[in-house]
């Protein structure tokens, strides 16, 4: 559905990009491999079972997203850096070379397909090779006097990017209210936006006047074929409509026209201003409807038109041509909207093949990001917040340093003893939805009450399904593993998760016991209750934890349990399951949280 929907959305009049759907497609394929394939469609292999765990599945999804960016922009190194900067929550050396390998394979396959399509049988696919928007200029030069306009470009790009994010966030909130209703409203909204966009784009070129074809045009004027810089659009022979040349092209061709060198006299000031305003608002209203849509290409188109307009205003007061200002404008708008730096810099360089602009691109990205950060968050965080996705930020807010972990917990704890009655296990699993539970040992199984470890919900259900029950509450040790294989505790695929409701037990079995010791993680991550909340957040995020146990320094505290959500500020929302237990002078906190990575 993503592939077909992306093709139809991009090829229609909607101002949407293909990068987001391709990242999503790559992540979905990787997730499918990480859960062992698909039994429904017979796409299963035994070797895939080695990836059926949380860590490898996260790594595969990260590599899939990197491959999606590499395929969308033919930028393999940019794809790796995008996954590092925006997708991965926990980066390590092994993941780096795996993502690099995935994007290298993408680049090789793209190169092979481009060679096959050089005959023209694939339409415009092979045009430009691996460089989509070639803006290379061997004789480019810039001086100190060119730096202030570039800095101004970055400042304005940051302001426009933050305004873009603000408007998009509010439009998405309205769209979410509409999409929550019946399906007919979703389809009606998409049809309305598409119809309005088509009518607007067809009518706007009538506002632009026809221009005489330049005598030194690098291609036929007016353009013959589907793409080009000189669309005729109701003009007399030997003339072209510059606004139609941008609108009646694909987004990629429009970007190519804006980035083109030696075309300083081909576009009017009014054309650039109309095209910028149109792209700015249409990209906002086109995103969020029921169609796979990305933001990269629309933001590049909008930023390129803004940058070229600034270059036209500067005129002869700068050494840079208008095409290079379009490249810098796209970089500034990307930095102001998406707030990435390294990956965007490399992606732009791979797109344009203009390494000589590297210092200016770095400056404009840093300036635009710094300015935009003063107003709101990056576009991906705002979208996740508008859609209600739980997300844990990678940094701690300053006020968190004034709080301890013990300041934010409350509630009665749901826990298990090392040897637990089957009926108690079933009751807790049916009445709670937690992903894991602490396990404690008490006399006579230990001298004093101690925290033994952590056991997962999926493992408890596996024990119940296998009926690994005991008649008496005694420890059986490692002999319990003889009844199980590694596949019994492997990570289940999406839609194949075992449910406690599917386990049927007799009254006699409910009175039996389970020895949880062999199946418990006896070395979970623990912190003391006096640890700074900011430090605990950084530990939880950077180590890639899913559970964190908090142990106290005090005793004789009453039992209590709850589930709370903390809205730390307007752009930081964290949900924790938090539990507290006190018995025999010992106190345990249990913090449980989900983290969902960003997929565009």
Oligomerization state of this entry?
Answer: single chain
Outline the biggest β-sheet: 5 strands, mixed
Please state roughly what percent of the residues sit in beta strands, choosing from under 5%, 5-15%, 15-25%, 25-35%, 35-45% or over 45%: 5-15%
**What share of residues is helical?**
40-55%
Work out the helix count. 19
Q: Could you report the average pLDDT, rounded to the nearest whole number?
A: 80
Through-space gap between termini = 15 Å
Structure description:
This protein is 46% helix and 11% strand. The protein is an alpha+beta fold and 600 residues long. The chain has a 5-stranded mixed sheet with strand order 8-9-12-11-10, with no helix packed on it. The chain has a 3-stranded mixed sheet with strand order 3-5-6. A two-stranded antiparallel sheet has the order 1-2. Helix 6 (147-179) packs parallel to helix 15 (379-387). The radius of gyration is 29 Å and the shape is elongated. It starts with a helix and ends in an 8-residue tail after the last strand.
Features:
single chain, 600 residues, 3-stranded mixed sheet
Summarize the topology.
Blueprint: H1 2-11, H2 19-34, H3 54-73, H4 76-87, H5 93-116, H6 147-179, H7 183-203, E1 210-212, E2 239-241, H8 242-247, H9 251-259, H10 269-286, H11 296-314, H12 322-338, H13 342-352, H14 358-373, H15 379-387, E3 416-417, E4 419-421, H16 422-431, E5 436-441, E6 450-456, H17 457-466, H18 507-510, E7 513-515, E8 526-528, H19 533-542, E9 547-551, E10 560-569, E11 572-583, E12 586-592
Parallel strand pairs: 3-5, 8-9
Antiparallel strand pairs: 1-2, 4-7, 5-6, 9-12, 10-11, 11-12
Helix pairs in contact: 2-3, 3-4, 3-5, 4-5, 4-13, 6-12, 6-14, 6-15, 9-11, 10-11, 11-12, 12-13, 12-14, 13-14
């Amino acid at each position: 559905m993503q592939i077909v929907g992306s093709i139809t959305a991009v090829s229609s009049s909607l101002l949407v990009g293909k990068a987001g759907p391709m990242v999503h497609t790559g992540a979905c394929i990787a997730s499918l491999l990480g859960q062992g394939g698909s039994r429904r469609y017979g796409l299963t292999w035994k070797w895939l079972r080695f990836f059926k765990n949380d860590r490898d599945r996260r790594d595969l999804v990260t590599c899939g997203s990197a491959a999606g960016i590499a395929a969308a922009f033919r930028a393999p190194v940019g794809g790796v850096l995008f996954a590092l900067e925006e997708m991965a929550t926990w980066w390590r050396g092994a993941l780096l070379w795996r993502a690099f390998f995935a994007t290298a394979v993408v680049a090789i396959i793209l190169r092979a397909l481009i060679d096959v399509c050089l005959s023209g049988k694939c339409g415009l696919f092979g045009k430009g090779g691996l460089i989509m928007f070639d803006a290379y200029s061997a004789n480019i030069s810039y001086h100190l006097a060119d730096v202030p306009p570039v800095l101004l470009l970055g400042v304005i790009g940051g302001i426009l990017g933050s305004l873009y994010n603000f408007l998009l966030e509010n439009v998405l909130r309205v769209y979410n209210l509409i999409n929550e209703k019946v399906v007919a409203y979703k389809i009606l909204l998409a049809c309305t936006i598409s119809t309005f966009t088509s009518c607007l784009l067809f009518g706007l070129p009538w506002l632009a006047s026809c221009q005489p074809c330049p005598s030194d045009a690098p291609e036929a004027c007016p353009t013959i074929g589907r793409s080009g810089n000189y669309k005729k659009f109701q003009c007399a022979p030997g003339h072209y409509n510059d606004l139609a040349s941008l609108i009646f092209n694909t987004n990629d061709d429009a970007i190519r026209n804006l980035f083109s060198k030696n075309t300083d006299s081909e576009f009017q000031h009014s054309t650039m201003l109309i095209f910028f305003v149109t792209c700015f608002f249409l990209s906002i209203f086109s995103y969020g409807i029921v169609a796979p849509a990305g933001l990269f290409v629309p933001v590049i188109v909008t930023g390129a038109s803004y940058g070229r307009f600034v270059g036209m205003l500067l005129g002869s007061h700068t050494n840079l041509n208008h095409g290079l200002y379009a490249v810098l404008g796209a970089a500034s708008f990307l930095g102001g909207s998406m707030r990435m730096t390294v990956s965007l810099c490399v992606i732009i360089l791979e797109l344009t093949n203009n390494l000589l602009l590297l210092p200016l691109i770095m400056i404009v990205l840093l300036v635009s990001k710094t300015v935009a950060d003063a107003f709101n968050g990056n576009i991906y965080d705002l979208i996740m917040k508008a859609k209600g996705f739980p997300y844990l930020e990678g940094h701690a807010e300053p006020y968190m340093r004034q709080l301890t972990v013990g300041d934010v917990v409350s509630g009665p704890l749901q826990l298990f003893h090392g040897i637990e009655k089957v009926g108690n296990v079933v009751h807790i699993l049916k009445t709670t939805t937690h992903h894991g539970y602490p396990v404690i040992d008490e006399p006579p199984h230990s001298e004093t009450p101690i925290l033994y470890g952590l056991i997962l919900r999926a493992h408890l259900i596996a024990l119940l399904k296998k009926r690994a029950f005991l008649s008496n509450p005694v420890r059986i040790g490692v002999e319990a593993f003889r009844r199980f294989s590694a596949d019994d505790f492997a990570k289940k695929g999406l839609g194949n998760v075992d449910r406690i409701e599917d386990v049927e037990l007799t009254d006699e079995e409910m009175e039996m016991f389970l020895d949880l010791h062999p199946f418990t993680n006896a070395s979970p991550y623990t912190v003391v209750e006096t640890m700074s909340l900011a430090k605990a957040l950084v530990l939880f995020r950077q180590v890639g934890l899913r559970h964190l146990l908090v142990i106290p320094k005090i005793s004789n505290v009453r039992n209590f349990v709850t589930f709370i959500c903390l809205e730390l500020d307007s752009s930081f929302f964290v949900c924790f399951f938090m539990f507290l237990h006190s018995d025999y002078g010992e106190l345990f906190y249990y913090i449980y949280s989900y983290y969902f990575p960003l997929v565009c």
